[in-house]
Structure formats: C-alpha cells, structure tokens
Amino acid sequence: MTTALITGAAGAIGQAIAAALEAAGRHVIRADSHEAPGVRHLDVTDDESCAELVASIDDLSLLVNAAGVMVRRTALDTDVATFQRVLDVNLTGAFRMARAAHPALAKNGGSIVSISSTHAFLAAKGSFAYGVSKAGVSHLTRLLALEWAADNIRVNAVAPTVVPSAMTAGVLADPAYVSRKLAAIPLGAPIAPEHVAAAVAYLASPAAASTTGQILVLDGGESLA
Ligand SMILES: NC(=O)c1ccc[n+]([C@@H]2O[C@H](COP(=O)([O-])OP(=O)(O)OC[C@H]3O[C@@H](n4cnc5c(N)ncnc54)[C@H](O)[C@@H]3O)[C@@H](O)[C@H]2O)c1
Q: Which family does it belong to (predicted)?
C-alpha cells in the first residue's frame, strides 16, 4: 500500500483529507505542530523536523501540504516579523516539505497536492500576508510541476474559498461576514472540508495522471463575477 503524508492534519481540512485518502485505500500519516491523537509531531518551519519525518516513512507516494496559519491584518498592520512567520508556515513550509519528499516521490512516481486558497488570486482586503503566501503556494505548484515532471512527480493544488474550520470559526460566527460572503458565492454556501478532500483525492489519483501544475478552484462560483 502506498503512503500519503498530510501536514496540518489536526485541522478540519487535513482530517477530511486523511479520511478520503484512507477510503481510497492509502496508508495515511497525519502530521501537525498541534498535538492530537494519531498525529505525529511536525513543525513545517523547521528543516530538521521536515527531513526527519519524511525519512521515517517507507513508500511515500503523496505529500499533502495542508499546514497553514491565517493572520487577518492589512498590510500596514502587518509587521515584518508577522509577514515572515505567515510565509514561513504557508509557503516556505510547503517548499521545505516538497524538497524533503522529492527523493521518495521520484522513486515512487508520486505527487504533491497543496492547499492554496482563493486568496491567491482574489485580492481580499485584510489578510495581506496570507494572500501573498497563498499566491506563492499557487506559483510554487506550477514551478515544481514544470521542474519535477521529468522526475515523474505531479504537483497540483486546490484553492477553496471559505471552509468551516478553526481558521474561520471567528469570521463564520459574525453574521455580517457570513451574509456578505455568501452573497458573493453564487452557489450560496461555504465549501465543505469533504469537498476539498475529494478534490485532493482526485488530483492524487491515477485518474489525474495527465494533470500537473493545476490549481483546482473550489469557490462555488465566487470568482466568476
Ligand atoms: N478554512 C478555510 O476557509 C480555508 C480556505 C482555503 C484554504 N485553506 C487552507 O487549508 C489548510 C488547512 O486549514 P484549515 O481550514 O483546516 O485550518 P486549521 O487551522 O483547522 O488547520 C491548519 C493546521 O495547520 C497546523 N499548523 C500550523 N502551523 C504549523 C506548523 N508550523 N507545522 C505544522 N502544522 C502547522 C495547525 O496546527 C492546524 O492544525 C491551510 O493551509 C489553510 O490556509 C483554508
């Protein structure tokens, strides 16, 4: 059985992805900086932590980069240390993990799926560092796909709009935010973690063998208008 490693696996999206991949017959290793049952420790901002975890896994054929942090601040309210911290987790963390996983993925004909966001291409006010980091994740995806195609590694991402999770619990408890957000989403609903997981499972599957460097948008039509 081939093994999938999911970062950010203590979170709502990571948990849903783990369940979907297990249902698809993969052996799944869950990793996160937050302690939780069945979750191995990983800090994606630490080179050694990333390298050690990857080295401990036999048969790694899928890396899912779902670790992430959100800071809801404008550019002027974002000090440089905060900006660097958000990029270190969301963008450099995905790069660290991809580099660490490259030898195993090349050996096993594997793939990478990262969780980007609609913030990567919609300029949303008030989450400056997060938006920049997710734009980076989307382009990291395209560039790695191009460079690593010769190694038989596919690299894709999914880009959801708002998904209920710890990251969005605050804004989703605000009726003004919810009515504004749902009015902007033609399908009129947040994105279920299970829908993100299904998209990840598809991109990681042999059915997507021709697909690399793509960002699958799950936004209920938000970006159409
Ligand atoms: N919730 C949304 O609306 C939404 C929308 C688009 C994209 N995303 C992205 O989906 C991914 C999962 O987010 P979620 O909504 O499940 O939020 P979440 O907060 O529930 O999960 C994020 C997880 O990442 C972990 N993490 C943070 N820093 C880490 C580090 N240094 N090392 C290892 N793990 C670390 C956290 O402990 C947490 O368990 C994130 O990349 C997020 O940016 C979320």
A: Belongs to the short-chain dehydrogenases/reductases (SDR) family.
